[in-house]
Amino acid sequence: MTALQKLYEGKAKILYATADPTILLACYKDDATAFNAQKRGTIAGKGRINCTMSEHLFRKLEAAGVPTHFVDCPAPNEMHVRALTIVPLEVIVRNFAAGSLCKQTGIALGTPLDPPLIEFCYKNDEFGDPLVTEGRIYAMKLATPAQVREITELTQRINEILRDFFQQCDIILVDFKIEFGIDSGGRIVLGDEISPDTCRLWDAKETDPIARVLDKDRFRQDLGNVEGAYQRVLEKVLAN
Ligand code: CDP
């Protein structure tokens, strides 16, 4: 399927129309941003790595009965996806405390969270993707109570599947962000990507707090060897 006009360029992907109006082409970029795009850079090979890793994880989730927007990958950094109406929420799942949770609450880095914490942020760069309560979601009409219930149930299943899978890879799934959309049949479907850009991943065999980091925190915090960490995650994922 050939790419037609560019529909949207985001921080990590460009979306193109295709001849089939129900299918889009997502091209994953090497560009990296952090802190609401205040920090910018490039991670060599990231587009290919994130696309290939997302493909692998979407296939695993589909096999376990989770609906995703994934169709196929015509190239290592290109993915055909089903067109969705995006629900403007970033769903954050935390198995261990890290990042903004530690900063905002004082919970120590690495504290286990049982049950896992599921949080919603309003997907809006202008407001800096703020954390929202369920009440705010309904007041802003971002989603209905039934949709929030279904998204929460799907998210719990996705977390269980991904956590178990990463454990097999000797990787701890600390936290991650996912997004959902609604397809032409009104079904809630997992969208976006699942990659070291959107997950915190720690090497389970490494206790050093810097060496164990295999995700975008290496870029955010200038920890070095960002490409090497992304490549290692991909190799572990593809081997399992
Ligand atoms: O990363 P930061 O500390 O700003 O935010 P967080 O709320 O602690 O992030 C939780 C998880 O969601 C991390 O794995 C982030 O990489 C991911 N996330 C993301 O992919 N995109 C966002 N806009 C915000 C968080």
TrEMBL record:
<dbReference type="InterPro" id="IPR028923">
    <property type="entry name" value="SAICAR_synt/ADE2_N"/>
</dbReference>
<dbReference type="InterPro" id="IPR018236">
    <property type="entry name" value="SAICAR_synthetase_CS"/>
</dbReference>
<dbReference type="GO" id="GO:0004639">
    <property type="term" value="F:phosphoribosylaminoimidazolesuccinocarboxamide synthase activity"/>
</dbReference>
<dbReference type="InterPro" id="IPR001636">
    <property type="entry name" value="SAICAR_synth"/>
</dbReference>
<comment type="similarity">
    <text>Belongs to the SAICAR synthetase family.</text>
</comment>
<dbReference type="InterPro" id="IPR050089">
    <property type="entry name" value="SAICAR_synthetase"/>
</dbReference>
<keyword id="KW-0658">Purine biosynthesis</keyword>
<keyword id="KW-0436">Ligase</keyword>
<comment type="pathway">
    <text>Purine metabolism; IMP biosynthesis via de novo pathway; 5-amino-1-(5-phospho-D-ribosyl)imidazole-4-carboxamide from 5-amino-1-(5-phospho-D-ribosyl)imidazole-4-carboxylate: step 1/2.</text>
</comment>
<dbReference type="Pfam" id="PF01259">
    <property type="entry name" value="SAICAR_synt"/>
</dbReference>
<dbReference type="InterPro" id="IPR033934">
    <property type="entry name" value="SAICAR_synt_PurC"/>
</dbReference>
<keyword id="KW-0547">Nucleotide-binding</keyword>
<keyword id="KW-0067">ATP-binding</keyword>
<protein>
    <recommendedName>
        <fullName>Phosphoribosylaminoimidazole-succinocarboxamide synthase</fullName>
        <ecNumber>6.3.2.6</ecNumber>
    </recommendedName>
</protein>
<feature type="domain" description="SAICAR synthetase/ADE2 N-terminal">
    <location>
        <begin position="6"/>
        <end position="236"/>
    </location>
</feature>
